[in-house]
Design a protein that fits this description.
single chain, about 375 residues, 14 helices, about 5% strand, elongated
Length: about 375
């Protein structure tokens, strides 16, 4: 019963998020004339004026010729025009989208290498090719479970099945996600601290950077405490979690014995997040946003972290609200452009994820299919963690 209520609550959040975005965007193009500027008829208004626009065409780099809903025509600054959502998609530059598509495609070999390193350092036999197949299947499954971690469930199943070390395999997926989040934090810190004089970084760069540094410091201290045995799980909490908290601490202690592997995985994560943020930026530049790359590298990690909360499908509604708060601004990007940018970004990921659907239909996605017969012969084989 509780599970059904939780599912209903999540579906309700998806509906609320999508409905909110549907009402937030402008479906028709508008002209926003700032206060004190001459309008279409040359009259200066003391307040901002908004008019419906039926058509507009570029006149030069900074000005466009518009036709209002009542048939008046004029040449106005391009920053005054707010294209409707469908017009934003129609005018998208396919060249930028192709570049973004290529950048997204580069992340899957990197994610595969990151996870493969974390498995190999723990002595879990896995070939790189089979790991890549499971990563692609997980990418496809991300589009059918809440948040952006749905594919991790599938990856954990594929890595654990037939491994003979189910707990180690599952923990490798968890620590793969941890290093991914660490890459997000490092990117946000670097972009926020070193790009704080460009675009939105003037507003959010400094505090986001220092918050990221504080979070990273807390993680390092916690990891060190776990590795040195300073942290213990109270027996009452451990019994409540059926021993899971202690197992997680044991796994963290085990990975602490492989600092080079953890550092390599985290470094790969930073590169992955730079590529993803850049791909999202390409989607934005394709539809005319005016943010530069440093500003995108500051904002996108925060948007990605918001999407990681497993409440709505692909962070629907959550990403848009955060993105609008960080990136929307006069002369930089409209609400419609931010919503369109994030939708196009999801489309790029889905396009690559469809490759995973083909692999899933073919079956045999387990990383350790060769050990299935051995496990049948030895059903008493237990999970192990080698600290």
């Amino acid at each position: 019963m509780k599970r059904h209520l939780f599912t209903a609550a999540r579906l309700s959040l998806v509906v609320v998020g999508i409905t909110f975005i549907a009402f937030l965007v402008d479906w028709r193009s508008t002209l926003l004339i700032p206060a004190g500027e001459p309008g279409v008829d040359g009259v200066v208004s003391p307040t901002a004026t908004e008019l419906r626009v039926t058509d507009f065409t570029p006149e030069d780099q900074d000005r466009v010729r518009i036709t209002t809903g009542d048939g008046r025509a004029a040449v106005v600054p391009s920053a005054w025009v707010r294209p409707g959502l469908l017009r934003v998609f129609r005018d998208a530059d396919w060249g930028w989208l192709v570049i973004g598509f290529g950048l997204v495609g580069c992340i899957y070999p990197l994610q595969t290498t990151r996870w493969w390193i974390l498995m190999r350092c723990r002595g879990i036999p896995a070939t790189w090719v089979r790991t890549l197949r499971l990563v692609m299947v997980g990418a496809f499954c991300n589009f059918f479970l809440p948040g952006t971690e749905g594919g991790d469930v599938v990856k954990a199943w594929g890595a654990a099945k037939g491994s003979g070390r189910r707990l180690d395999a599952v923990m490798s997926v968890i620590f793969d996600r941890v290093t991914g989040l660490a890459g997000l934090v490092l990117l946000a810190a670097a972009a926020g601290l070193f790009a704080a004089e460009t675009g939105i970084a003037r507003d959010i760069g400094r505090w986001s950077g220092w918050l990221a540094v504080a979070a990273l410091s807390a993680v390092v201290v916690g990891f060190t405490a776990i590795h040195r045995g300073w942290l213990r799980i109270p027996p009452s909490i451990d019994r409540l979690g059926r021993g899971v908290p202690t197992r997680i601490l044991d796994a963290a202690h085990a990975y602490g014995s492989h600092p080079a592997a953890v550092a390599s995985a985290t470094s790969i994560s930073v590169i992955v997040q730079v590529l993803l943020a850049s791909a999202a930026g390409c989607c934005g530049w394709a539809i005319g946003i005016h943010h530069d790359l440093p500003a995108v590298l500051v904002a996108m990690p925060i948007i990605f972290i918001a999407a990681a909360i497993p409440l709505t499908w692909q962070g629907a509604g959550v990403m848009e609200v955060v993105g609008i708060g960080l990136l929307a601004g006069v002369g930089l990007a409209s609400v419609n452009q931010i919503v369109a940018m994030l939708l196009l970004y999801r489309c790029l990921e889905l396009a690559w994820g469809l490759t995973g659907s083909i692999l899933m239909l073919r079956g045999d996605i387990e990383i350790h299919p060769q050990t299935l017969e051995d496990n049948v012969r030895d059903p008493l084989k237990k999970d192990s963690i080698d600290p």
